[in-house]
Amino acid sequence: MKLIILGAPGSGKGTSATVLREEFSLAHISTGDIFRANIKGNTPLGIEAKSYIDKGQLVPDSLTISMVEDRLNQDDCAKGYILDGFPRTIAQAEALDEMLSKKNTGIDAVLSIVVDDEEIKARVAGRRVCEKCGASYNVNFKPTKVENVCDLCGGKVYQRDDDKPETVEARLKTYYKNTQPLIDFYDKKGLIVEGDNNKDSQICIDQIKEGLKAKGLI
Ligand code: AP5
Ligand code: MG
To answer: CB of 144 closer than 6 A to ligand 1?
Structure first.
């Protein structure tokens, strides 16, 4: 199964993708996580990406598309994958179509995660992430058992640089301008499966699974 998970910053793409990747043995490709790993490793890609991410802007398509193409060619993607945070522009979506049609394949469904902006701002303000394994927590909704220590691996839990309120505003604006049009793009192809993540994330997962079932994918 080849899936895209689409939604505003902080809507729960990572949270939902983590559950789905385990349940359906999918590779989880988060472009944000790949950029953050490059920033941490101080690579040329990381240094360039950081200048955009810190302002809540998109990293240019030229860098992002080739990075995803390389990732999709890795062996673990053969079993199926979930793309989290890509595509984010119509140009990226068209490039993805082209990459996949070269392999005589395509995306099976696009999971559209819906959450109100005010809820997003509250969640992102409380989000903490493990620097070692990437697990996501929230000081208000899903705290770690021991303060600032990951429940899963014991790594240090930190707040992302781009989770400051003013950067979150910029990220939301970028989302509405560049990424929201993709919902219509994929709706026209009949690929959208919606998940409402305003309440418990299990409700959202259940809705997504119903949608995948209706499409005969699971
Ligand atoms: P990226 O890392 O993709 O960030 P994002 O899209 O802004 O999304 P987030 O990771 O912040 O949120 P999420 O939807 O994964 O939510 P989460 O599950 O963590 O990208 C970062 C940056 O990289 C971009 O701004 C851009 O600059 C660049 N970039 C990345 N991809 C790019 C591309 N393709 N092109 C160009 N640039 C690109 O949940 C959020 C919080 O809510 C967590 O604390 C979680 O525990 C909590 N939560 C989740 N669900 C619930 C619930 N139901 N109830 C209560 N709390 C919940
Ligand atoms: Mg994420």
So the answer is: no
Q: What is the pTM of this model?
A: 0.96
Residue 9 CB less than 6 A away from ligand 1: yes
| Pure H helices in 41-178 | 44-53, 61-72, 90-102, 117-126, 165-174
Average pLDDT over residues 64-83: 97
- How much distance in Å is there from the Cα of 136 to the middle of ligand 1? 10
Query: Do residues 13 and 127 touch, judged by C-beta distance below 8 A?
Result: no
Mean pLDDT of 103-109: 97
Dist. CA 163 → ligand 2 center (Å): 11
DSSP H/E element including 182: helix 181-187
CB of 12 sitting under 6 A from ligand 1: yes
Highest mean pLDDT among 57-61, 131-135, 137-141, 165-169: 57-61
| Residues 163 and 189 sit within 8 Å (Cβ to Cβ) | no
**Where would I find the beta strands (DSSP E) of the chain?**
2-7, 27-30, 81-84, 109-114, 127-130, 136-138, 157-158, 192-196
> Would you please indicate which residues are annotated as catalytic (active-site) residues?
13, 88, 127, 160, 171
Ligand 1 atom index nearest CA of 136: 46
Q: Which tokens is 36 given?
A: 């953050």
